[in-house]
Amino acid sequence: MQYHFNDPEMVARKTRAITECERFNAIDGTDYEAQFAQLKRMLGSVGERVWIAKTFNCDCGKNIHIGNDFIGNHNLTILDIREVHIGNHVMIGPHTLITTVSHPLSAKERREYNAWAKPVFIEDGVWIGGNVTVLPGVTIGENSVIAAGAVVTENIPANSVAAGVPAQVVHKIEEN
Prior knowledge:
globular; 20% helix; alpha/beta; 20 strands; 32% strand
C-alpha cells in the first residue's frame, strides 16, 4: 500500500498517536490499571493481561491488535501505518522496533513524501529478544524465538529460533 506520508489525514493520525503515547508514558509505572485502560483507548484491540513498559511509541495505535498475556518491555516502538497483529502469550524485549513502513529507493519519490506499508503478524507464543527490528510484511510463526539484535526481513516459520542480520533460522524448536 503506497501513501503520501505528509498527507493531512496521516499527519492528524500521527499527531493523535503522539498525544496518546505521551498520556500512556506519563502514567505512574506502577498504576497497571490506568496503563491498561489507556492502552484500550489508544490501540485497535487489546486482550487480557497486557502490559507495556515505558516508553511506548506508535504511529497510529488503532492498527495495533494484541492478544492475551502480552509483555512489551521498555522502549517498544510500533510504526503501525498498516496492521500489526500480535497473538497470545507473546513477549517482546526492550528497544524493539516493529515497522510496517518503508520508503522508496528513489530519492525523487522520497522527496515527494511517498512511502509504502505492509502488515506484520506475530503469532502465538513468540518471544522476541531485545534490540530486534521487524520489517514490513513479515510473519513470525507460532512459538518462535527471535534472538536479541536480529533484523527480521523475511517470514520466520513456526517453532524456529532465528538470529542475525538478516535473521536466519538457526535452530528448530521441538515442543515437549
